[in-house]
Amino acid sequence: MIGEIRRVIIGQDDVIRYSMVVVLCNQHALIEGVPGLGKTLLARTLAAALGCEFKRIQFTPDLMPADITGTNVFNLQRNEFSLVKGPLFTTFLLGDEINRAPAKTQSALLEAMQERTVTIDRESYKLPPNFTVFATENPIESEGTYPLPEAQKDRFMLKIPMGWPAADEELSLAQRSLTEAAPESVLRRGEVSAVMSEADLECLRQALAQVHVSEQLAEYSVEVVRRTRTDDSVLVGAGPRATQALVRAARAWAGLAGRDFVSPDDVRAIAMPVLEHRVLLRPESELEGVRPAEVLERILEEVPVPR
Q: Do 241 and 187 share a structural domain?
Protein backbone atom coordinates (compact mmCIF):
# COMPACT_ATOMS: atom_id res chain seq x y z
CA MET A 1 0.00 0.00 0.00
CA ILE A 2 2.77 2.43 0.95
CA GLY A 3 4.60 1.45 -2.25
CA GLU A 4 1.61 2.47 -4.36
CA ILE A 5 1.35 5.80 -2.54
CA ARG A 6 5.05 6.46 -3.17
CA ARG A 7 4.46 6.18 -6.90
CA VAL A 8 2.70 9.54 -6.61
CA ILE A 9 3.87 11.15 -3.36
CA ILE A 10 7.59 11.94 -3.15
CA GLY A 11 9.03 12.00 0.36
CA GLN A 12 6.61 12.92 3.21
CA ASP A 13 7.38 9.64 5.01
CA ASP A 14 5.77 10.66 8.31
CA VAL A 15 2.70 12.03 6.54
CA ILE A 16 2.14 8.74 4.70
CA ARG A 17 2.59 6.76 7.91
CA TYR A 18 0.18 9.00 9.82
CA SER A 19 -2.35 8.48 7.02
CA MET A 20 -2.00 4.73 7.35
CA VAL A 21 -2.61 5.01 11.11
CA VAL A 22 -5.89 6.85 10.43
CA VAL A 23 -7.03 4.23 7.92
CA LEU A 24 -6.12 1.32 10.20
CA CYS A 25 -8.05 2.90 13.08
CA ASN A 26 -11.08 3.64 10.84
CA GLN A 27 -10.95 7.33 11.77
CA HIS A 28 -10.63 10.73 10.07
CA ALA A 29 -7.71 13.09 9.42
CA LEU A 30 -7.14 16.82 8.95
CA ILE A 31 -4.17 17.59 6.68
CA GLU A 32 -2.65 21.03 7.16
CA GLY A 33 -0.15 22.68 4.86
CA VAL A 34 0.47 25.53 2.45
CA PRO A 35 -0.74 25.19 -1.17
CA GLY A 36 1.19 22.98 -3.55
CA LEU A 37 2.47 20.34 -1.13
CA GLY A 38 0.18 17.56 -2.40
CA LYS A 39 -2.48 17.41 0.33
CA THR A 40 -5.31 16.73 -2.10
CA LEU A 41 -3.08 14.43 -4.16
CA LEU A 42 -2.30 12.35 -1.07
CA ALA A 43 -5.98 11.83 -0.26
CA ARG A 44 -6.84 10.89 -3.84
CA THR A 45 -3.91 8.47 -4.03
CA LEU A 46 -4.87 6.88 -0.73
CA ALA A 47 -8.41 6.28 -1.96
CA ALA A 48 -7.11 4.79 -5.22
CA ALA A 49 -4.78 2.40 -3.38
CA LEU A 50 -7.66 1.36 -1.12
CA GLY A 51 -9.83 0.72 -4.16
CA CYS A 52 -12.83 2.37 -2.54
CA GLU A 53 -15.47 4.80 -3.77
CA PHE A 54 -14.11 8.33 -3.70
CA LYS A 55 -15.83 11.72 -3.75
CA ARG A 56 -14.59 15.25 -3.26
CA ILE A 57 -16.22 18.36 -1.81
CA GLN A 58 -14.69 21.73 -2.60
CA PHE A 59 -15.73 23.79 0.41
CA THR A 60 -16.69 27.40 -0.35
CA PRO A 61 -18.38 30.17 1.69
CA ASP A 62 -21.69 29.71 -0.14
CA LEU A 63 -21.87 25.93 0.35
CA MET A 64 -25.04 24.82 2.16
CA PRO A 65 -25.57 21.66 4.29
CA ALA A 66 -27.97 20.19 1.73
CA ASP A 67 -25.23 20.48 -0.90
CA ILE A 68 -23.19 17.82 0.89
CA THR A 69 -25.84 15.67 2.57
CA GLY A 70 -28.41 15.62 -0.26
CA THR A 71 -32.08 16.48 -0.31
CA ASN A 72 -35.51 15.12 -1.21
CA VAL A 73 -36.75 16.22 -4.64
CA PHE A 74 -40.32 15.85 -5.86
CA ASN A 75 -40.59 13.41 -8.76
CA LEU A 76 -43.45 14.45 -11.08
CA GLN A 77 -43.60 11.09 -12.84
CA ARG A 78 -43.96 9.10 -9.64
CA ASN A 79 -45.83 11.85 -7.81
CA GLU A 80 -43.59 11.41 -4.77
CA PHE A 81 -40.42 12.71 -3.17
CA SER A 82 -37.17 10.85 -3.91
CA LEU A 83 -33.79 11.25 -2.28
CA VAL A 84 -30.95 12.79 -4.27
CA LYS A 85 -27.87 11.73 -2.31
CA GLY A 86 -25.06 14.20 -1.74
CA PRO A 87 -21.31 13.51 -1.88
CA LEU A 88 -21.35 12.39 1.78
CA PHE A 89 -22.70 9.05 0.57
CA THR A 90 -19.34 7.51 -0.24
CA THR A 91 -16.56 5.49 1.37
CA PHE A 92 -13.66 7.95 1.10
CA LEU A 93 -14.48 11.66 1.22
CA LEU A 94 -12.02 14.46 0.53
CA GLY A 95 -13.08 17.76 2.10
CA ASP A 96 -10.88 20.26 0.28
CA GLU A 97 -10.20 23.54 2.14
CA ILE A 98 -12.72 22.67 4.83
CA ASN A 99 -12.14 25.94 6.69
CA ARG A 100 -13.66 27.94 3.81
CA ALA A 101 -17.20 26.76 4.64
CA PRO A 102 -19.30 28.47 7.35
CA ALA A 103 -19.99 26.71 10.64
CA LYS A 104 -23.49 25.67 9.56
CA THR A 105 -22.08 23.64 6.68
CA GLN A 106 -19.13 22.30 8.65
CA SER A 107 -21.51 21.02 11.33
CA ALA A 108 -23.28 18.88 8.73
CA LEU A 109 -20.21 16.66 8.83
CA LEU A 110 -20.39 16.02 12.59
CA GLU A 111 -23.05 13.32 12.50
CA ALA A 112 -21.46 11.62 9.51
CA MET A 113 -18.00 11.55 11.10
CA GLN A 114 -19.15 10.37 14.52
CA GLU A 115 -22.16 8.13 13.84
CA ARG A 116 -21.62 7.34 10.13
CA THR A 117 -25.22 8.30 9.46
CA VAL A 118 -26.84 11.21 7.64
CA THR A 119 -30.19 12.71 8.66
CA ILE A 120 -32.24 14.29 5.87
CA ASP A 121 -35.76 15.58 6.55
CA ARG A 122 -35.92 13.75 9.89
CA GLU A 123 -34.95 10.41 8.33
CA SER A 124 -31.56 8.77 8.97
CA TYR A 125 -29.50 6.97 6.35
CA LYS A 126 -26.49 4.77 7.09
CA LEU A 127 -23.12 5.43 5.51
CA PRO A 128 -20.61 2.66 4.66
CA PRO A 129 -18.82 1.24 7.74
CA ASN A 130 -15.46 2.35 6.30
CA PHE A 131 -16.60 5.95 5.73
CA THR A 132 -13.48 8.10 6.07
CA VAL A 133 -12.98 11.86 5.84
CA PHE A 134 -9.66 13.41 4.88
CA ALA A 135 -9.97 17.19 5.07
CA THR A 136 -7.38 19.79 4.03
CA GLU A 137 -6.79 23.32 5.20
CA ASN A 138 -4.29 26.12 4.57
CA PRO A 139 -2.83 27.39 7.87
CA ILE A 140 -1.49 30.73 6.59
CA GLU A 141 -4.45 32.17 4.66
CA SER A 142 -7.16 33.79 6.80
CA GLU A 143 -9.16 35.78 4.23
CA GLY A 144 -12.46 34.07 3.45
CA THR A 145 -11.96 31.31 6.02
CA TYR A 146 -13.86 30.24 9.13
CA PRO A 147 -12.19 28.63 12.16
CA LEU A 148 -13.20 25.02 12.66
CA PRO A 149 -15.46 24.49 15.71
CA GLU A 150 -13.78 22.68 18.59
CA ALA A 151 -16.37 19.89 18.39
CA GLN A 152 -15.47 19.23 14.77
CA LYS A 153 -11.70 19.33 15.33
CA ASP A 154 -12.18 16.74 18.07
CA ARG A 155 -13.71 14.36 15.48
CA PHE A 156 -10.44 14.26 13.56
CA MET A 157 -8.18 11.61 15.05
CA LEU A 158 -5.02 13.28 13.72
CA LYS A 159 -4.04 16.66 12.40
CA ILE A 160 -1.29 15.79 9.95
CA PRO A 161 1.16 18.64 9.27
CA MET A 162 2.57 18.60 5.74
CA GLY A 163 5.85 20.50 5.42
CA TRP A 164 8.21 21.48 2.65
CA PRO A 165 10.00 18.65 0.82
CA ALA A 166 13.74 18.18 1.24
CA ALA A 167 16.04 19.52 -1.49
CA ASP A 168 16.67 16.11 -3.08
CA GLU A 169 12.94 15.28 -2.98
CA GLU A 170 12.05 18.57 -4.68
CA LEU A 171 14.72 17.91 -7.31
CA SER A 172 13.21 14.47 -7.96
CA LEU A 173 9.78 16.08 -8.27
CA ALA A 174 11.09 18.62 -10.77
CA GLN A 175 12.71 15.90 -12.88
CA ARG A 176 9.61 13.69 -12.84
CA SER A 177 7.44 16.64 -13.84
CA LEU A 178 9.24 16.73 -17.19
CA THR A 179 8.27 13.14 -17.98
CA GLU A 180 5.15 11.00 -18.08
CA ALA A 181 6.01 9.90 -14.53
CA ALA A 182 4.73 13.21 -13.13
CA PRO A 183 2.68 12.46 -9.96
CA GLU A 184 -0.57 13.96 -11.25
CA SER A 185 -0.22 12.10 -14.57
CA VAL A 186 0.33 8.75 -12.84
CA LEU A 187 -2.87 9.20 -10.84
CA ARG A 188 -4.84 10.57 -13.78
CA ARG A 189 -3.98 7.58 -15.96
CA GLY A 190 -5.21 5.22 -13.25
CA GLU A 191 -1.82 3.60 -12.75
CA VAL A 192 -2.21 3.44 -8.96
CA SER A 193 -3.43 -0.09 -8.29
CA ALA A 194 -6.05 -0.99 -5.72
CA VAL A 195 -3.93 -3.22 -3.51
CA MET A 196 -6.34 -3.65 -0.62
CA SER A 197 -9.97 -4.70 -0.37
CA GLU A 198 -12.39 -3.88 2.44
CA ALA A 199 -12.02 -7.47 3.66
CA ASP A 200 -8.22 -7.07 3.81
CA LEU A 201 -8.61 -3.83 5.72
CA GLU A 202 -10.94 -5.48 8.23
CA CYS A 203 -8.41 -8.29 8.76
CA LEU A 204 -5.67 -5.75 9.44
CA ARG A 205 -7.85 -3.96 11.97
CA GLN A 206 -8.58 -7.22 13.73
CA ALA A 207 -4.86 -7.99 13.77
CA LEU A 208 -4.23 -4.72 15.63
CA ALA A 209 -6.09 -6.24 18.59
CA GLN A 210 -3.08 -8.54 19.01
CA VAL A 211 -0.76 -5.56 19.61
CA HIS A 212 -0.41 -5.45 23.39
CA VAL A 213 -0.85 -2.20 25.34
CA SER A 214 0.36 -2.60 28.92
CA GLU A 215 -1.52 -1.10 31.85
CA GLN A 216 1.44 1.15 32.64
CA LEU A 217 1.46 2.49 29.08
CA ALA A 218 -2.28 3.15 29.19
CA GLU A 219 -1.79 5.07 32.44
CA TYR A 220 1.05 7.02 30.81
CA SER A 221 -1.20 7.99 27.89
CA VAL A 222 -3.98 9.07 30.25
CA GLU A 223 -1.55 11.18 32.30
CA VAL A 224 -0.25 12.94 29.17
CA VAL A 225 -3.78 13.88 28.11
CA ARG A 226 -4.88 14.91 31.60
CA ARG A 227 -1.81 17.12 31.99
CA THR A 228 -3.05 19.24 29.05
CA ARG A 229 -6.06 20.21 31.18
CA THR A 230 -4.02 21.53 34.10
CA ASP A 231 -1.20 23.33 32.29
CA ASP A 232 -1.09 27.07 33.05
CA SER A 233 -0.85 27.98 29.36
CA VAL A 234 -3.93 25.96 28.35
CA LEU A 235 -7.50 27.24 28.46
CA VAL A 236 -9.18 24.01 27.32
CA GLY A 237 -7.27 20.74 27.25
CA ALA A 238 -7.86 17.50 25.36
CA GLY A 239 -10.92 15.42 26.25
CA PRO A 240 -11.56 11.70 26.72
CA ARG A 241 -11.85 11.20 22.97
CA ALA A 242 -8.21 12.28 22.73
CA THR A 243 -7.22 9.62 25.27
CA GLN A 244 -8.89 6.93 23.17
CA ALA A 245 -7.31 8.29 19.98
CA LEU A 246 -3.82 8.39 21.54
CA VAL A 247 -3.93 4.77 22.70
CA ARG A 248 -5.39 3.46 19.45
CA ALA A 249 -3.04 5.50 17.27
CA ALA A 250 0.00 4.34 19.28
CA ARG A 251 -1.09 0.74 18.78
CA ALA A 252 -1.41 1.26 15.02
CA TRP A 253 1.98 3.00 14.97
CA ALA A 254 3.55 -0.03 16.66
CA GLY A 255 1.75 -2.40 14.30
CA LEU A 256 3.11 -0.53 11.26
CA ALA A 257 6.59 -1.02 12.74
CA GLY A 258 5.96 -4.79 12.85
CA ARG A 259 5.81 -5.05 16.64
CA ASP A 260 3.17 -6.78 18.76
CA PHE A 261 3.59 -4.39 21.71
CA VAL A 262 3.39 -0.62 22.22
CA SER A 263 6.35 1.25 23.68
CA PRO A 264 6.49 4.76 25.22
CA ASP A 265 8.25 5.92 22.04
CA ASP A 266 5.14 5.02 20.05
CA VAL A 267 3.00 7.23 22.28
CA ARG A 268 5.48 10.09 22.04
CA ALA A 269 5.73 9.72 18.25
CA ILE A 270 1.98 10.01 17.73
CA ALA A 271 1.10 12.41 20.60
CA MET A 272 1.65 15.64 18.65
CA PRO A 273 -0.74 14.95 15.72
CA VAL A 274 -3.32 13.50 18.13
CA LEU A 275 -3.31 16.35 20.67
CA GLU A 276 -2.14 19.56 19.02
CA HIS A 277 -5.46 20.50 17.39
CA ARG A 278 -7.38 19.64 20.56
CA VAL A 279 -5.51 22.06 22.83
CA LEU A 280 -6.83 25.64 23.14
CA LEU A 281 -4.37 28.10 24.65
CA ARG A 282 -5.18 31.04 26.91
CA PRO A 283 -5.26 34.42 25.10
CA GLU A 284 -2.35 35.76 27.20
CA SER A 285 -0.26 32.72 26.23
CA GLU A 286 -0.97 33.28 22.56
CA LEU A 287 0.05 36.94 22.92
CA GLU A 288 3.35 35.77 24.35
CA GLY A 289 3.90 33.62 21.24
CA VAL A 290 3.36 30.26 22.92
CA ARG A 291 2.34 27.48 20.52
CA PRO A 292 0.42 24.28 21.35
CA ALA A 293 3.35 22.20 20.08
CA GLU A 294 5.67 23.82 22.63
CA VAL A 295 3.23 23.10 25.46
CA LEU A 296 2.89 19.46 24.41
CA GLU A 297 6.65 19.02 24.12
CA ARG A 298 7.03 20.31 27.67
CA ILE A 299 4.29 17.98 28.95
CA LEU A 300 5.91 14.98 27.27
CA GLU A 301 9.19 15.85 28.98
CA GLU A 302 7.55 16.29 32.40
CA VAL A 303 5.39 13.15 32.51
CA PRO A 304 7.45 10.20 33.84
CA VAL A 305 8.00 7.53 31.19
CA PRO A 306 7.07 4.00 32.34
CA ARG A 307 9.80 1.37 32.30
A: no
